[in-house]
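User: Show me a protein chain along with its predicted structure.
Assistant: Here is one chain, sequence first, then structure tokens.
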Amino acid sequence: MALSLPFSFAWAAPMAYKEGVMFMSEFGATDREFGANYAFTGRDAFGVMLAEQTSSTGIRRQTTHATYTRRAARWNLPDAQANFWLFANVEQVRGDGLNGTVTAWEPGFQIDYETTRVYFAANWHSQRAKGANDAKVRHNASALRAGFSFYNAEYDEVQPWLIVQAKRETGWLRERSLTPMLRLIHKAYFLELGVKRDLDDRRNTGQINLMYTY
């Protein structure tokens, strides 16, 4: 089993293999994102992302990201793999409640563990700006994910997973949600179909995540 391949296990890595390009997108009632990154080494990737978010009170923001991803550590175990990722984004934020465009930065991290049958991950990121703008754009998000595959599959077969995500967001966008998802992996494609339950507003909305590695 080639543990070094990004899709050997659950393939939730935020970057591709060296000199690979990863396209990623998320579509939901309150979040829409589309981006891509290029892995210029086996540990580092630069990219861009466009995002739009809407809070429960109707505040809408658009963000343009310049992204940097770093695989800070990897542990190859006999039948598993674990990773620690660091993120650093520089962003241009505009939208409701802001006077023009605000420059912000967004550090974050992710730690994950996966085998051919189970998957666990935790991540966090925080959006910040200078001076008085900090209170206007501040946004923290943390999430836990866990799941299992229904069966082992060969590389050229589709492998289905059941993943559950618990997420909490604070700042200008406040939300607590629980999202069960069906994850489908096939070679370079990665698709998640979920139903997000807003634990505060008691609403259910659809969510689609898609990644493709080239």
